[in-house]
Write a structure and sequence with these properties.
Blueprint: H1 2-13, H2 17-22, E1 38-41, H3 42-56, E2 60-64, H4 79-83, E3 88-90, H5 95-107, E4 111-115, H6 126-133, H7 136-139, E5 149-155, H8 170-173, E6 180-182, H9 187-199, E7 204-209, E8 217-220, E9 233-236, E10 241-245, H10 249-262, E11 267-271, E12 274-276, H11 280-290, E13 293-295
Helix pairs in contact: 1-10, 3-9, 5-6
Domain Transketolase-like pyrimidine-binding: 40-215
EC number: 1.2.4.4
Catalytic activity: N(6)-[(R)-lipoyl]-L-lysyl-[protein] + 3-methyl-2-oxobutanoate + H(+) = N(6)-[(R)-S(8)-2-methylpropanoyldihydrolipoyl]-L-lysyl-[protein] + CO2
Length: 305
Amino acid sequence: MASGLRRFVGSLSRRNLSTACANKQLIQQHDGGVGSGKSLNLYSAINQALHIALETDPRAYVFGEDVGFGGVFRCTTGLADRFGKSRVFNTPLCEQGIVGFAIGLAAMGNRAIAEIQFADYIFPAFDQIVNEAAKFRYRSGNQFNCGGLTVRAPYGAVGHGGHYHSQSPEAFFCHVPGLKVVIPRSPRQAKGLLLSCIRDPNPVVFFEPKWLYRLSVEEVPEDDYMLPLSEAEVIREGSDITLVGWGAQLSIMEQACLDAEKEGISCELIDLKTLIPWDKETVEASVRKTGRLLPRSSGYWRFWC
């Protein structure tokens, strides 16, 4: 069985994005818990969440490079027109400054929603996120915090864009106490999880799979709703091996499950959704059942048996 799975994994790693695109509907079948609504793609669901966040909390602000006219991916379209340039505004091209300003804004009791235009450029702000935002509460003995901070960033490859617009840097932040790291796989998740992140009393880094901005479409409730953080979801039950992933990679992983099923291998597939603090209870329960674990990292597969 192990050799069969390695063969499937090897073949999938060589498939291009067009193959995964053909199976995009797979990631849209497993996200219950809220009612039906309007059909939206992922970037529109993000936009809707930001509208709700600004409308329901006068302390909320959205800012970043080019967000005033909608951003390069159009996620902030219409926000400045509706809420004004004092609450939705462009910043200089300085990621360290964006996050540093966001930390100060959040420390004053506001909801700071900072956009990094591409996740590849989050590294200049790494010190601010890791050494300031994550440690703010602890270093003050819980007298102060910047829990109203959410850093949004589109991540991952789209089949073009080169090395400065294709990276998946989430692993760097998953070793930092004091941060939460969240990645949605679908429009319904994107809206509910983003609203939870914005309202969470801890700083959050929210990575958005830009490959799915327009590709992933599903029914999204138009009302205000939140999905719980740190709660993984078993999106496919199985008995032979557990697969764990997040974000855009779930569509490819589910195709691997379907291919393995043809060989008589039953795969259980789990979407972490929150990478830190992660839902170890759900993963452990699955591995106790299957006895095997195949986690999907950002850039490669690793196999434990």
